[in-house]
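Please check this one:

***
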Amino acid sequence: VQLQASGGGSVQAGGSLTLSCVASGSNLGVGTMAWHRQAPGNQRELVARIGGLGSPDYADSVKGRFTISRGNRKNSSHLQMNKLEPEDTGVYYCKFAYRGREYWGKGTLVTVSS
């Protein structure tokens, strides 16, 4: 399984960014897509995830600001991040969970300046 993530970058506080991720591999069924992030000096934390049926979960810190959705391609997801805050700065990782296994993409840096 390979994960390809895109998006990220630098933005001022209050701005928006969109992250996208696609998981690909042979004979993959529909799995759970998630985004985690890791700020400098902090542990990696869950930001949002969405299951195969499209029901999302969010970290309390991003509720009302971030929206995760499934893309048109199977096992793809988008993370729309609005009203970004400096505390949202970190490396964002896409994760695909399927049949008890987890697969991680390379991180993409999001920097929010005040």
